[in-house]
Structures are given as C-alpha cells and as structure tokens.
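Researcher: Let's do a round of design. I'm pasting the structure tokens now; please hold your answer until I've finished.
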C-alpha cells in the first residue's frame, strides 16, 4: 500500500526532514532501493518515487534496503497505534519471534491476540501496508543487516539471531534481495567473534530524550541485584529460559540513540532482549505528538515545557505505565499525577 500525499513526502525527502524519519520510506523505481527521508544520496526525481508507511511495505513492493541510510536503524515509530492496539501487540510478539520458525503462522498469532487471521491481515494492510508475514520477514532481514554491519558475529549466529530457520535460507534471502551473499555486506574490520564476547547495537529514538529523567524513574523502581545504574549506565541481569547474562544501556545523545551491549549465551534470544530494551526505554514513542497532546492540559503544559523528552518507562516483562512511589524523585513525581492517563491517551487514541 502506497501513501497518497506524494508532494508532501517528496518535499520531506528533498529537505531531509528528520521529523519524517521512521514515518515514511521512499522506493526509488530507477534503482530498486528504498530509503529513509534523511538519506544522504541525491534526491531522486519525483516521478521515480513511491512512498510507503513502513519498511515492510516497501520491501513487499520489491524494493531492497538502502546501504547508505540503513533503514534498519531508523526510529521505530508507531504513530498509527491510536487506532490499532491489536497491531501494536502483534508487532511486539513478532519482534520477539512469534512468526519465526517453520511452524509459525498468522492464524496462531491471531489466536494469541484474540482476533481472526483475516482481521489481523486486514489491520496490518490498513496501518502498515504489508502483511504480518512480510513484516516478520522484513524484521528478520533488517535485524540481520544491522548485525552484519555492527557486530562481528559469525554468519551462523547472525542467521539464528535474526530468526532464519537455517543458514541456507539466510543466504538465499540475502542473495535474492541484494544480489550478493550476506558476507558481502559486512564491514571489513577484524575477524568473527562469538556472541559470548557481547553484542553491541545502536537503537534510535526521535529527540528530545530526557535521559536523566528516565534513569531517575528506573532507579526508583529497580529491584536490588537485578537492575542498577552506575555512571549514567543502566544495567540489568538476565535470567531467561534457564540461562543467565547481562545487558547494559548508555545514552548517545549525539546520535539520538542508545547503545545496548548484550551478553547472553543464546543468540536466538537477541531479538526478544532488544524488544524489551526498546519497551523499557520507550524508544518508539512519537515524543512530539505526545508532548503536543499533554500540553493541552493547562496543569501539564508547564511540566512538559520544563522537561522536554520525558518518557514513560516500560516494564521489562510486559508493557505497563509508570507508577509513582514514595521513592520517585521529586522532579518526576508531579508529572506522574496526570501523565499516566494522558500518555495512555496519546499512545492509544
């Protein structure tokens, strides 16, 4: 499904407007590539552009990801969530591998969500312009591409971590999409390294981001021995399926992103861990829309102005709104009095 307001979106690409990053992707018919609005490449001719609401829609239309602007590191924005909480929940499950593996299917996913498979497909087409299967396939490809660019994992580990059933299928998918094996996309720096040595990835957000506020909220609720903050870095011990590991997150304000280092023995757990980090740090928030919505309340408007980029920390195990406690910092507590209800409205309509 293509977006219809071609003139507005083309102007965003001409000016490299970062406000549209993650909201729209352009497929260039003359090259067969799809890009982010901020792509540094020369702007293509208007008649050669097709605009899509998601990377999956562009990829389903037979465009391949740009190697320069790297769609895999675009901010993960869910601006459509106000009318499709079911899609939001489905995407969370897909991010954790719900459609990976040979036995996974859309009907089983729909059953977990309490809807029919046909309805789920219809919702995905309406809001993302692509089917659930196409979204899952695009997620696998883009996550694998990020691992190829940013880590030294072996090809087998990249294939497993990104949800491909086999290295053979992984190789075939990249050859079909890019016309080259996945190894050809890897930066030529050093040899392969095991996941046991740690995997470090950059996860983008839309600015502004109140990092001190987020750390204060996380510190207030941290369970002793499980979560802690040291020198501005958030740490968490991992206990998943009988295996242990650790994750650390640091802020990279100059890149509008956070840097995540994961040490865990099973690479198959990487997508789920990354999805949880995104949820805890509210990286997918459309902060401009949320701020605009909250500022309509005269009691909240001055608080929003004082703390731009203040976000709602999510729970590691499940999506939840922040809860103020006696330990909540004074600078954070007034915001809690009204923000939970309004944030829910801003996120979900």
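Researcher: That's everything. Go ahead.
Model: Designed sequence:
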């Amino acid at each position: 499904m293509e977006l219809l307001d071609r003139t507005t979106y083309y102007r965003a690409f001409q000016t490299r407007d970062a406000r549209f990053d993650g909201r729209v992707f352009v497929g260039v018919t003359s090259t067969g590539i799809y890009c982010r609005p901020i792509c540094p490449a020369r702007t293509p001719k208007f008649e050669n552009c097709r605009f899509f609401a998601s990377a999956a829609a562009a990829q389903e239309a037979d465009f391949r990801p740009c190697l320069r602007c790297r769609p895999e590191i675009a901010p993960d924005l869910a601006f459509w969530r106000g009318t499709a909480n079911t899609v939001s929940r489905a995407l969370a499950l897909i991010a954790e591998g719900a459609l990976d593996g040979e036995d996974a299917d859309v009907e089983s996913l729909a059953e977990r969500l309490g809807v029919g498979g046909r309805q789920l497909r219809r919702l995905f087409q309406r809001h993302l312009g692509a089917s659930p299967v196409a979204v899952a396939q695009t997620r696998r490809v883009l996550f694998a591409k990020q691992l190829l660019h940013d880590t030294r994992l072996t090809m087998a580990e990249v294939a497993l971590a990104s949800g491909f059933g086999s290295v053979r299928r992984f190789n075939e998918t990249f050859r079909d999409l890019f016309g080259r094996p996945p190894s050809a996309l890897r930066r030529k720096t050093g040899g392969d390294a095991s996941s046991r040595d740690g995997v470090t990835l950059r996860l983008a957000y839309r600015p502004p981001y109140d990092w001190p506020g987020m750390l204060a909220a996380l510190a207030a609720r941290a369970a002793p021995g499980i979560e802690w903050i040291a020198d501005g870095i958030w740490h968490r011990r991992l206990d998943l399926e009988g295996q242990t590991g650790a994750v650390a997150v640091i802020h990279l304000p100059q890149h509008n992103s956070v840097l995540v280092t994961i040490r865990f023995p099973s690479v198959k757990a990487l997508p789920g861990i990354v999805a949880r980090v995104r949820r805890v740090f509210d990286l997918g928030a459309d902060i401009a829309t949320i701020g605009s919505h909250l500022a309509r309340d005269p009691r909240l408007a001055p608080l929003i102005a004082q703390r731009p980029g203040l976000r709602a920390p999510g729970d590691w195990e499940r999506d939840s709104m922040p809860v103020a406690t006696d330990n909540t910092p004074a600078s954070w507590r007034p915001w809690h009095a009204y923000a939970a209800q309004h944030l829910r409205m801003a996120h979900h309509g």
